Amino acid sequence: METLVMGKGQLFLSTLLSPLAMADWLLDVSFEMHSACRLRQTVNTSLSLLLGEETIFFEGLSQNHHHSYREVVGSAQLLDVSAESVSIALQVQERLDDGGWRTILAQTLSTGLNMPMLFESGEPNCEHVKLQVEVMTA
Prior knowledge:
The chain is mainly beta. Helices cover 9% and strands 58% of the residues. It contains 2 helices and 8 strands; from the N terminus they run ααββββββββ. Strands 2-1-8-7 form a 4-stranded antiparallel sheet, with no helix packed on it. A 4-stranded antiparallel sheet has the order 3-4-5-6, with no helix packed on it. A hairpin with a 5-residue loop joins strand 3 (54-63) and strand 4. It is elongated.
């Protein structure tokens, strides 16, 4: 009897050709941010994700307590997909006046398909972030 031996390249190729790796992934995002000066920003969107690629889910402006506007960017990256769960890295950043970036949210979430997940952070008198995501196949 002959033994079948797979090299690393063949194993990687078979992983890439699996139904999970080839599926089209959709991400529903509901993002809400409240700042200390009672300003509110909300985003509700759906977008396609590719495994391992970072995708911008919103770009906008926020207003700080000095009434100047700053760029805010939210991104998502599909990290891992299995039959039981999906891992997503989510990040929201604000561009500072000096050109640097301040991270508002950096979270890796793991959830099942078609199972909404809610994440909240912040204090009542400070910046408060609420993020709900759901991953689906197309």
